[in-house]
């Protein structure tokens, strides 16, 4: 462009420049547009894969809902639309189960292998459990305060199938086994309400496609079932049943064995196994990122399907969704700016405001990038001037980036609570179930993939583990809130990890060494 302007200004006034066009000018224009087009395409791609993409899909779905609000969709058409949206969840579940299994193995192996002293290892683990437990406990506190505001209509499912037992008869009369309400004896008689029985056991065969939720006679039976799930009798069956507790326990044992074998022997076989698992995890994360790519498109059938099927209305869903988003922001603010700085101040006797100012750059970078993994070098640089043992601090940051995820645990716990309440399943939130949710949120936070909306498939898998029920339609609308709360969850992860590393770095003497 500069050469073109010089040539034009040098031409005599009132004359026409009849010289042939400069070929360099055309080449420069082509280069300019060629460089501009990839820039625009890259920006549009970032918008599509970032927060604007799912938001655009949600807006498009709401527009379609408004256009067809007076059209009575046939139930088959509505269910087909819902089935298309469910493909998104099915694909995520298919990938996240093996990914969660491998990630737990690698995280536990890294933790076991990194610290040479048992005291330092348990000290770091205890601090991580403390900060993560505070996040989960806050989710339970909000459930106790505002749980009634989240209650929705009962989720439609078949608790137990009905059956009748027909008695043999000499004539054509139909007689059925029934109970005499006075004597309590069984006898044959004409059909009435007393001839219908529940199948409360597994004696009679049930169609494989029939939905049967987990039902327990008392808290003791539920506790025994939860304990039994911790030890899998068949690891392949645990994969098929999406039993996260069984898979997590098995993965924990493998991770400890892998970490100890690498520390004691350092053999090439152990290293090859670890590298194989790392490559498998990276491959599954790539597959999951491909699925996340179609989130804006999947939002359309996930939102419109339940409305067309008349199971949900915008007026009933969005108020509860707004309460969820408000609770999430308030809980994240309390945990980030109150609880975590207080924990740091108690264990290090330092100013919480000074700690927040020291980590400000890392928090802003994490909020913008949406990835605690990318923010790790920035976090290290922020904490280095404020600790006495930089090696210990950096090792704690590196290991904690894998298993110390306050934001992921808070997200999973609060999302599960919202699903149970919105689906009308509050009666299932027994004390035993809440304890299992806490354990699942802790283990599930280790399985959250470092991609946008990475916690979504983990929540789905845990809900299936707890209930044996398909994901309620209402969870589709929770994807709208995911657009805004995902960066907040990242900030919680970064600060929670920074608090633990800050405490370890200040309380550890320089003579304590690590195998990083």
From TrEMBL:
Gene Ontology MF terms: symporter activity
Signal peptide start and end residues: none
Membrane topology: Multi-pass membrane protein
Highest taxon listed in the record's lineage: Eukaryota
Gene3D superfamilies, per database record: Sodium:dicarboxylate symporter
Biased composition (Low complexity): 8-19
Pfam families named among the record's database cross-references: SDF (PF00375)
Keywords for this protein: Cell membrane, Membrane, Symport, Transmembrane, Transmembrane helix, Transport
GO-annotated cellular components: plasma membrane
Compartments, record wording: Cell membrane; Membrane
Transmembrane segments: 47-68, 88-108, 120-140, 239-261, 282-303, 323-347, 435-464, 484-504
UniProt-annotated stretches for the region Disordered: 1-28
Family membership: Belongs to the dicarboxylate/amino acid:cation symporter (DAACS) (TC 2.A.23) family.
UniProt protein name: Amino acid transporter
